[in-house]
Design a protein that fits this description.
With about 140 residues, this protein is of the alpha/beta class. It has one domain: Rossmann fold (3-Layer(aba) Sandwich). It is built from four helices and six strands. A six-stranded mixed beta sheet has the order 3-1-2-4-5-6, sandwiched between helices. A hairpin with a 5-residue loop joins strand 1 and strand 2. Helix 1 packs across helix 4. The radius of gyration is 14 Å and the shape is globular.
Length: about 140
């Protein structure tokens, strides 16, 4: 199950924020979310932040959460954000036989990769602000 929150991002844009919090980077995502104001306004898009270590044991839950994500407000653009080294490439656990080396390892190609172990809440905010403005890029901390 994913968490959904209508938030106003720094800069005033309202998005429906969804999260798959899997490990340490989830704490930074929570801090980022706490820095955003909850909004009653209609969102302009849906963002999914995937943070933490992806494992083969969690794969069914990840796939279920992705299906939920795509079902919400299908008329809006949906973007996937890989937050941190683990969601991006497997992080320090990349060579473990049970770790999936990032979302691309399961055929999901995020719209945005945010580097760091962990990335700071301000790095997450800055990267998302860049993505919303159309400048998708790898952002390092």
């Amino acid at each position: 199950m994913i968490t959904l929150t209508n938030v106003e991002l720094p800069g005033g844009r309202v998005v429906l924020l969804a999260e798959i919090p899997l490990a340490c980077c989830a704490l930074e995502v929570y801090a980022f979310r706490a820095s955003c104001a909850v909004s009653a306004s209609a969102p302009s898009e849906v963002l999914l932040l995937v943070s933490g270590t992806l494992t083969t044991a969690l794969l069914p839950e990840i796939e279920g959460a992705l299906a939920q994500f795509h079902a919400h407000l299908p008329e809006l653009p949906h973007r996937i954000v890989a937050v941190g080294a683990c969601a991006t490439s497997g992080g320090p656990y990349w060579d473990s036989p049970t770790v999936i080396p990032g979302l691309a390892g399961i055929g999901i190609h995020p719209d945005l990769y945010i580097a760091g172990c962990p990335p700071s809440p301000s790095a997450i905010s800055g990267a998302i602000a860049s993505a919303i403005s159309g400048a998708l890029q790898v952002v390092s901390t």
